[in-house]
Specification:
- Helices cover about 30% and strands about 20% of the residues.
- The chain is of the alpha+beta class and about 400 residues long.
- The strands form four sheets. A seven-stranded mixed beta sheet has the order 1-2-8-3-9-15-10, covered by helices on one side. Strands 4-7-17-16 form a four-stranded antiparallel beta sheet.
- β12 and β13 form a beta hairpin.
- α3 packs across α10.
- The radius of gyration is 23 Å and the shape is globular.
- The two termini are about 30 Å apart.
């Protein structure tokens, strides 16, 4: 079975993770999908495939060469819950002509004006939805490519490689699944997540990340007698947000620019709350953003009274480049295979994080590979069949490098 055919099958599983759940995995649908993946792994010859109690799928491809190091290939099973993710109806645009693509809902369209990279896939096959849901290529494309590569390697024992571990993870989209991974159970010296965009991307630099919760306590009194007495928490929350540099918000940034992002707000006169995420590739700059919020909170407490504003900062993950750069061969291996497959490697800084961000700091250096898919987390998400096949071949080629 080809990788894109597997993606079509996997898209039928509605595996959104949930921010509000306290279990791992956060949704039972991920367990349903995980059990299906275990059965498929066993069917293609992964004899030790299993699902652990926390929703991680593991399996081993035995070495066909005497190589002392083990490499793992990983992808996550969940999708975001913020875009419709159920009843996904996929379609194939075969022999794509390089122009705009109107989706089946008659409204949504992939437009070259919006996505100027589209014509590069002229003549290939695009996998799209009807425009009413996401596709789930983030990261079921990665799952499909690892499964396809595993099937090939098990059917061709003449291909020399070291021991390979397969791991499919839950709850990546909410950032909690990888917290439950046991590196000893993964049992790998190095790993690659297959969770990126275009074929040829090799990501090893992510944001440093932190969160900020701002809680504001006001004082309510009848507005007729409020002068010099009322403290309107909702308005103080607005004032807090207005003191953050306007140009340092996601809608004004790109590339290596970091940002403050207001994700959620609620409030009334008596109480209000703001929830932010802070991001930057440079750890020192991220620390500066945290310091800015601390100064804003102190200023408003001085203005409205101590205890009015409570700020809680928490670190989330670090730039994995710090842990990957000491192992440059991990990038070189991927670059070499990409070039051999006719691609041009690139390493754009990731404007986010991956499971590899945390795993690298757990002692398993873990770059991220592209999946041949685009427009993740949206109704215009699509995958390119030919690129997905190359991504599977990239996994095979990297595995061969671990027999040299």
């Amino acid at each position: 079975m080809k990788a894109y055919e597997r993606l079509i099958a996997y898209a039928a599983y509605p595996t959104a993770s949930s921010e509000t759940a306290e279990t791992c995995p956060s949704t039972p649908s991920q367990i349903t999908f995980a059990k299906a993946l275990v059965e498929e792994l066993k069917k293609i010859g992964v004899e030790d495939a299993y699902l652990n109690p926390l929703g991680f799928v593991y399996g081993t491809i035995p070495a066909t060469a005497d190589y002392e190091k083990t490499v793992a290939f990983m992808a996550h099973m969940d999708v975001v819950e913020t875009v419709p993710y159920e009843n996904i109806r996929t379609a194939l645009i075969e022999n794509y002509d390089g122009g705009d693509v109107l989706l089946a809902d008659g409204v949504s369209a992939l437009k070259v004006e919006d996505y100027p990279f589209l014509p590069r896939y002229k003549g290939d096959t695009l996998l799209v939805t009807d425009g009413t849901t996401l596709l789930g290529a983030d990261d079921k494309a990665g799952v499909a490519e690892i499964m396809t590569a595993a099937e090939y390697l098990l059917a061709h024992p003449e291909v020399k490689h070291g021991k390979i571990r397969i791991c499919f993870t839950p709850d990546e989209e909410i950032g909690t699944g990888i917290l439950h991974i046991d590196p000893k159970e993964l049992a790998a010296d190095y790993a690659y997540t297959v969770d990126g965009g275009a074929f040829g991307e090799v990501d090893y630099e992510t944001f440093n990340a932190a969160s900020a919760v701002v809680k504001i306590t006001g004082f309510s009194i009848h507005p007729g007698g409020a002068k010099n007495k009322m403290k309107n928490a909702a308005r103080i929350a607005m004032e807090f947000d207005s003191m953050i540099p306007e140009s340092e918000r996601p809608e004004y940034t790109s590339g290596r620019d970091g940002f403050y992002h207001l994700c959620d707000m609620k409030g009334d006169i008596e109480s209000a709350e703001l929830n932010y995420i802070l991001r930057d590739h440079d750890l020192a700059i991220l620390e500066g953003r945290k310091a800015t919020l601390t100064r804003v909170a102190a200023f408003l407490n001085a203005k409205y009274g101590e205890g009015t504003v409570e700020l809680v900062l928490a670190d989330q993950y670090r730039n994995m480049a710090e842990k990957i750069r000491p192992f440059p061969f991990l990038i070189d291996y991927a670059y070499d295979v990409i070039r051999a497959l006719g691609g041009e490697p690139s390493a754009p800084p990731v404007r986010g994080g991956t499971d590899g961000s945390r795993l690298s700091f757990m002692g398993v250096p873990c770059p991220n590979l592209g999946t041949g898919s685009h427009n993740h987390h949206g109704r215009l998400e699509f995958a390119v069949a030919g690129e997905m096949e190359k991504c599977s071949k990239l996994i095979i080629g990297i595995a061969e490098k671990f027999a040299l």
